[in-house]
Design brief:
Elements: E1 3-4, E2 12-13, H1 16-27, H2 30-39, H3 54-60, H4 64-72, H5 87-93, H6 97-105, H7 120-127, H8 130-138, H9 153-159, H10 163-171, H11 186-192, H12 196-204, H13 218-225, H14 228-235, H15 250-256, H16 260-268, H17 283-290, H18 293-303
Antiparallel strand pairs: 1-2
Helix pairs in contact: 1-2, 3-4, 3-5, 5-6, 5-7, 7-8, 7-9, 9-10, 9-11, 11-12, 11-13, 12-14, 13-14, 13-15, 14-16, 15-16, 15-17, 16-18, 17-18
């Protein structure tokens, strides 16, 4: 069954020729689609039960002749499906520059927001589509758009290791230290995900190792995960070596999870081996509990200097 969506946002059944139009679209039969539209008995924006229009379907199939034909027939470039997708979002998901350019030319709303706050720029940033980021910003995309959880374009690019996208977004004026609802920054998420180049780039751009709402810093998370290169990069931007709001330190995390090299690095930068966590335990206590003999030796040697 196929429908069109009137202004009330309710579905309304239309003729069987609309079903034929969708079938012709799926078959890639441009001539049949044009003939059906010319009859006047079907609507260029008729949708299926999921609210998908012919234009959305053609773009999802990367059918350029069909897309051009539908645009020439006046297809609504800003219609949205039940899933909250638009033709523009589908084109970006498909990494289809030619379709994105055509949709913008025909008046696509580049700042349309989905129910979870998604936008074309956020989608492009998450996908790492440098060309789309540049095109959208040049076309007036909202650089401050964020998902409902507070993730912005820099965060999404950093999370997925798209360092070149991070560079361009920051050059275009996006914020380097924007914090998500839970306090997570782009630097923090890049550190957690092991994206060393992204961490280094954010550090060079002035990012600070700000703690998440639970008190954990990027250095703490990198020490926990065993990301040696990232720990080194974070130490270069003056990350906090003392006790955090979560009652632990990066040295505690490294000792607990057996990351010997990171323990050495942190001690070399002046981390205090005598610090006690909220349970009254030092990094040495944790290493002894876990049976990490080499880390135990390192920490005992350090304690002799005090």
């Amino acid at each position: 069954m196929f429908y069109i969506r009137p202004q009330s946002d309710q579905f309304q059944m239309v003729s069987s020729t609309d079903a034929l139009l969708h079938r012709s679209l799926r078959a890639g039969d441009v001539s049949a689609v044009k003939e059906l539209l010319d009859t006047g008995r079907t609507h260029v924006d008729c949708t299926d039960q999921d609210g998908v229009t012919p234009l959305m379907l053609a773009i999802s199939r990367k059918d350029r002749p069909m897309v051009d034909a539908l645009l020439d027939e006046g297809a609504d470039v800003n219609a949205n499906s039940v899933a909250n997708e638009t033709a523009l979002l589908i084109a970006i998901e498909n990494d289809s520059r030619v379709d994105v350019e055509a949709l913008i030319k025909y008046g696509a709303n580049i700042n349309y927001r989905t129910k979870d706050g998604g936008s074309a720029l956020l989608c492009a940033s998450e996908r790492g589509l440098l060309w789309a980021i540049r095109l959208l910003i040049r076309s007036g995309a909202d650089k401050d758009a964020r998902l409902l959880d507070g993730s912005d374009s820099v965060f999404l690019a950093a999370q997925n290791g798209h360092v070149e996208c991070v560079k361009v977004l920051l050059e275009e004026g996006c914020r380097v230290d924007w914090r998500r609802v839970d306090g997570t920054t782009a630097l923090w998420i890049a550190a957690q995900c092991g994206e060393v180049e992204t961490v280094e780039e954010l550090g060079m751009r002035g990012a600070k190792d700000l703690p998440r709402c639970d008190g954990a810093t990027a250095l703490f998370k990198a020490a926990h995960k065993g990301h040696e290169d990232i720990v080194q990069a974070l130490l270069a931007i003056d990350s906090h070596l003392g006790l955090l709001e979560n009652g632990e330190s990066a040295l505690h995390a490294a000792a607990l999870f057996g990351h010997e090299r990171i323990v050495e690095m942190l001690l070399g930068e002046g981390a205090d081996a005598r610090l006690m966590n909220r349970n009254g335990e030092t990094p040495l206590d944790l290493a002894q509990q876990m049976g990490y003999d080499q880390i135990v030796d390192l920490l005992k040697k350090r304690r002799r200097f005090f």
